[in-house]
Amino acid sequence: MWSAWNTFWDRLPFLVRLLVTASFALLVAGSSMLLLSARQEARDAQADLREELGHEMEFLPLSLADVIVIGDYSSLQQALEHFVARRHVFRAEFRDRFGTRLASQDHPLSPLCPAWFEEGLGFSPITGRTPISVGGRDYGELIVTMTVQDQANRAWTLLLRHVLILLLALTLDFLGIWLVLRNGLAPLDHLEQGANALAKGRLDARLAEEGSPELRHLISTFNRMAEATQSAQEGLARSNAELQRFAEIAAHHLQEPARRLASYAQRLQVLLSGQTLDEEVQASLNFIQEQARRQQSLVRDVQRYLAAGQACAEPGVADADLVLRDVLQHLRARIEQAGAHVTLGPLPRVRLDPPRLAEIFTLLLENSLHQPGSREIAVRGEVRAGKAYFQVSDDGPGIAPEYRERVFRVFERLSSSGLGTGVGLAIVRRILESAGGRAWIEETPGGGCTVNFELPLGDNHMNYANLAAMPHLPAPREQTP
Amino acid sequence: MKFVLFALALVGCAAQAVDTYSFGVLPQRSAVLTARYWNPILDYAGRRAGVRLLLKVARTAPESNAAIERGEFDFVYSNTIFRPSMAAADYQVILRPRDAAITGQIVTLADSPIRSLHELRGREVGFPSIAAFVGYAVPMDHLLHLGVQVTPVFGGNQEGIMAQLKAGKVIAAGVNDQVMRDFAARVGMQYHVLWESPPYLNLPIAVHPRVPGEVARAVRATIDGMELDAEGFKVLQASAQVVGQKPPYGFQISTPADYHNYRDFYRNTLVKDIQ
Fold this sequence. Notes:
- The complex is a heterodimer.
- Chain A is α+β, with helices and mostly antiparallel strands.
- Chain A has helices at 2-11, 14-70, 73-84, 115-121, 149-184, 186-199, 213-271, 279-307, 320-330, 332-338, 354-370, 424-434; strands at residues 89-96, 101-103, 126-134, 137-146, 318-319, 341-344, 347-350, 376-384, 387-394, 438-443, 449-463.
- Among the domains of chain A are: 10-179, Beta-Lactamase (2-Layer Sandwich); 318-463, Histidine kinase-like ATPase, C-terminal domain (Heat Shock Protein 90, 2-Layer Sandwich).
- In chain A, a hairpin with a 4-residue loop joins strand 1 and strand 2 (101-103).
- Residues 461-481 of chain A have low confidence and may be disordered.
- Chain B has two domains: 18-100 and 202-262, Periplasmic binding protein-like II (D-Maltodextrin-Binding Protein, domain 2); 104-196, Periplasmic binding protein-like II (D-Maltodextrin-Binding Protein, domain 2).
- Chain B is 41% helix and 19% strand.
- Chain B has a six-stranded mixed β-sheet with strand order 2-1-3-10-4-11.
């Protein structure tokens, strides 16, 4: 129960907590004060009543003694009735030693307060008794009951008034705190807006210093933080831009020599094709061609990697189903050649330009096709936790857990003899991270590799077009670069 | 066995049962003072005599006299029993006070300009009650014999009219000399006696004929012997202090013959409205 209360309390806004705490404190203090005050008044009333009763019991017997000694009970009855008209006297009676009882009519005051108030605070009638003894003879007993009903009524009326005042104080306290905090904490809304602007990349967001000194100091600190972040971001952007530019230029300049190397290696192969060549010479020639092609592939992939972080088209929503259809068309020959079977499921729309989404699917499918023994490839998607979630699974050899993160690094290959430059998954991750997504690898149940990735959802995210399994895709022809 | 125990209980109860006799006192003072004076005496006398004596006090002397005339009380302390109207009740004197005889007086405050009875002609004079003997009947009889017509004003009882005299509500009052003296001593009052009657024995204690003889004799003997008994004397002394009475205290045995002058007065008085 305590933890449930803590959870509930933690969810309350600061203003509500403050209002509840302040109001509760005022209510407890005020109520305690009122009750203690009423209790004290009751005690004082009882004390006064006791004193008054003592006074009456001291003098009343003297005033009634004559009548009692004479035995004029008629006059005594009248005297009792006359006496009970006095303030606070509820009842007066006389009992003689033979059991004869004379009593006045009860003189009750109308109660204005509830019974629990009287009983709880001790507003109770008190009774005094005194024997009537004259000259050593016991004539009987005088009994007087006094009531504090009027004081109880007064105390109740006063309590109600005080309760109203307390409620008024609570209301004013409530309003006051709400007004002060609403106005005083308004700058916090601006601070929140500024933080959101920063989070969205608007590093030029600055706030006007307003509010209490504490808030001004906080806003000033925020502005300094934003300025430092903007400055660092701009520096980083400049540095990244320079690196990007250098890498692009380097890749571009490296591409030409690689292309010429491959071209001249092929030309040399053609020129020497009519001659009988030494095995070593032939092997060397073949190796030069192969490495030249590899260099070209590496430089091309480096260029692709560099380009992966930038949108290739207008940023928008991509229909993953349509994009995947195109990709499968392009890979038809490769799929047919590998004898593979691709299974599809409905895919959600994503917030990513279509060309880069296509590159993701292409790279992942090519990866699966490259795996020895990989025949069944499945592509599935769903909306999960507000994101578009995809899976590309194969039944190949899979990737050991210790390599599942390494393979996302540039130039990381599980085997040097395999196809590919080891940049594909790095490109996939770079595209995803630039669009606010992520990728990771799990083992396919039953064996194989499953690459999972997430992307922000596009509008009308689920496309339930009939893209069920397409088992009859003809094997595509491999495209030669 | 149960029957024996029951019988013993009955006998015990019977042995503890005490006869109760009423003791009526002429209201010369307030009922409380009367009770404070008489209750200790009656308690002592009752215990010693083996009976219970219950004090009865009327509000006024006329009421008391009416009760006496009806024979309501078993014992009475009153001098109105000698009136002709009281003869039927036939109360018999058994005790009288040991103190000196009382007289009727007509008194004024010490600083009053009234110095003779004739100056009272046509004026209001206070008296205890229409039933008072030395307080009303005797002084009024004298005034009538003198031919001094006054308008009587009654104060309820002896001390009542004395209090009115002290307060100046009446210029003169007819009083019992002993009660006057005791009252004046108690409240610090100075007064002047315009006239004083011959002495009359103070109020007797009398018994109704219905009271068994042995009871009357026991009560008489007990009260008579109070002065000689240590406890009894203390009781008398304490009661005397209540009303400011001077010694001698207590009562002595008496007979109706001791009060013949009361009867003579009633035979010859000019006062016709004595109650």
